[in-house]
Design goal:
The chain has a 6-stranded parallel sheet with strand order 3-2-1-4-5-6, with helices on both faces. By secondary structure, the chain is α/β, with parallel strands linked by helices. α1 packs across α2, α1 runs antiparallel to α4 and α3 packs antiparallel against α4. It has 9 helices and 6 strands, in the order βαααααβαβαβαββα. The structure holds magnesium ion. The site of magnesium ion has 7 residues, from loops.
């Protein structure tokens, strides 16, 4: 029996990664006269990965990694005007309108009547909070949690604090390492709904079949899947 359905936010309920990809492409264009596109992208990925442990996930850390990449890849020749352009792109990301995925609001409305809905997202506290406010979806959730890392310990802590046995919980998200593997590990159900692009540090090979693991192509199919899994609906 499932009593709680927890949702990831970025690229599960609303578009996020497309904004990162567009901004990355513009960074490569700004730095074109110093280094080829692919080299900028590869260097940015390395810098981001190195900085994750210090800056965490989110746009502010991404801005700092873009600036650091620009300084390093140009051998410190990048101009103040170019740095300014990079900062401006970053600010625009923080200020961008939020774009919900098709069907997200309808699915939450359909499930809220029967289940407690949680939102579990990781990243920068202020940025995630702003996105939740902009989404207009906050009132659908019985509980909202912003964590710095999604792993077995953080999911276990959330479910324990909320009085939910992991076996009664289902997590829905676009990232196998963040939304699926740790939840399966603690005994929960997990539904993977891939987004059309995946951040480098969220990539993972296809999973082997698992009795508590499910995969969908779009969120609109979630209520039907849950109806099949949860015997309460029979
Ligand atoms: Mg996500």
């Amino acid at each position: 029996m499932i009593s709680v359905i927890a949702f990831d936010a970025d690229d599960t309920l609303w578009h996020t990664e497309n904004l990162f990809q567009q901004t990355q492409a513009r960074l490569a264009a700004i730095l074109e006269r110093y280094a080829p596109h692919d080299e900028v992208m590869a260097r940015l990925q390395l810098t981001e990965r190195r900085n994750l442990v210090l800056f965490g996930y989110g746009i502010k850390g991404f801005i700092l990694s873009m600036v650091e990449t620009a300084i390093e890849i140009t051998d410190r020749r990048v101009t103040a005007a170019e740095i300014h352009e990079i900062m401006t792109m970053g600010r625009a990301m923080l200020d961008a309108p939020l774009d919900l995925l098709d069907g997200a609001a309808t699915v939450l409305d359909a499930l809220a009547a029967r289940y407690r809905l949680f939102l579990i997202t990781k990243g920068d506290m202020l940025d995630q909070r702003n996105k939740i406010d902009k989404s207009g979806l906050a009132d659908r959730f019985a509980h909202v949690e912003i964590v710095s890392e999604k792993n077995a310990a953080s999911y276990r802590a959330i479910f324990t604090a909320q009085g939910v046995a992991p076996g009664e919980a289902m997590m829905v998200g676009n990232s196998i390492p963040s939304d699926i593997l740790p939840v399966l590990e603690i005994g929960g159900h997990a539904v993977h709904i891939p987004y059309h692009v995946t951040a480098e540090f969220e990539r993972h090979p296809e999973l082997a079949p698992h009795p508590r693991f499910h995969q969908l192509t779009e969120i609109a199919d979630l209520p039907a899947l849950i109806a099949r899994i949860d015997r309460r609906n029979e």
